[in-house]
Predict the structure.
Amino acid sequence: MRFYPAIQKIKAMLEAGTIGKVLSYRLEVAIYLPNWRPHLDYRKNYGAHKAQGGGAILDMIHEIDYARWLFGDPLQVSAFYDKVSDLEIDTEDLAEINLRHEGSIGNIHLDYLSHKYTRKVHVIGSKGNLFWDWHLGGVQHYDGDSKAENFYANPKDYQLNQMYLDETN
C-alpha cells in the first residue's frame, strides 16, 4: 500500500507540513472474509488458519506497515483482538490496535466482519485534516485556517497492478 497513489500523496502532504503537526490518525480495513476471495472457500484459505499465518492482523498487515511509514515507529502499542463472529476460522477476525507516538495517538482497525469493503485513512493535524477512502479515488484535504476543501485524485489511468510493479523497483 505504500506505493498506492493516495498513500503516496498523504506521505508527501505530511512531509510538507500541509496539516501541521499530526495529532491523531485512524486507519481502517474491513471486509467480510467469505466475500474477500470469492473464488476460494474461505475456510480452506490461509486467512482462516493461525498455523498458516492467517488472521486479520497478519492478513491485513499493510495498514500496520504504512502506519509506521507515514507516522514513524510508535513509542507504545496496545491491542485488543479476538474472534467475535461465527466464521469458521481459528484466528482473530477483529483487531483494534492503538499506537502512541510523541505528541500523537493512532488507531488501526482490522476486521473480517464488514459486509461492505472499507479501506480508509483519517489524519487530524494541528492545521487541517486528510481523508482517504478506497472508494473515493483520491485524498481529501481540509484546511483548518481557510476552511477550504481540496481533492487530489488518483491518476485517471491508474491500474492497481502498477502499485506492485512500483514496489519491485
Remarks:
- Helices lie at 5-15, 33-36, 56-59, 62-71, 161-168.
- The mean pLDDT is 94.
- Residues 49 and 139 are 35 Å apart (CA to CA).
